[in-house]
Structure formats: C-alpha cells, structure tokens
Design goal:
Helices cover 8% and strands 57% of the residues. The protein has one helix and five strands, in the order αβββββ. Strand 3 (38-42) and strand 4 form a beta hairpin. The protein starts with a helix and ends with a strand. Pfam families: YolD. This is YolD-like protein.
C-alpha cells in the first residue's frame, strides 16, 4: 500500500515516526532506495529529507 501511494505525481504528506515522535512532512518523492529501505522527499524549499520506510505511519 505504501509503494502505491508513492507513485502519485505532485506533493504528498507523510506521517512518520522519528526518534519515537510522530512527525509530518510534505514534499515530492525524490528517491526511493529499497536496499536501504529509505525514502527521500524534496519539500517546497528544495530541501531533501530521508525517511525510513518502517517508520511511515500514513501517506496521503
């Protein structure tokens, strides 16, 4: 289900856990690394954030 949501064009919003805290980020999929199980998102300011796939709670 997560991979299907990542195919969307445009901006997506992801709720994820980092260091035990629930965080939210909005951006476009920049890179998906299945070997390391990470997702890189690029936000409106062109900053790139890396998220562990196991920490993702919800994508919309």
């Amino acid at each position: 289900m997560i991979l299907k949501a990542l195919r969307k064009k445009g901006f997506i919003t992801i709720n994820y856990y980092k260091d035990g805290l629930l965080q939210t980020i909005k951006g476009q999929v920049h890179h998906l690394n299945l070997n390391e199980q990470t997702l890189s998102l690029k936000d409106e300011n062109e900053n790139v954030f890396s998220i562990r796939l196991s920490g993702i709670k919800e994508i919309y």
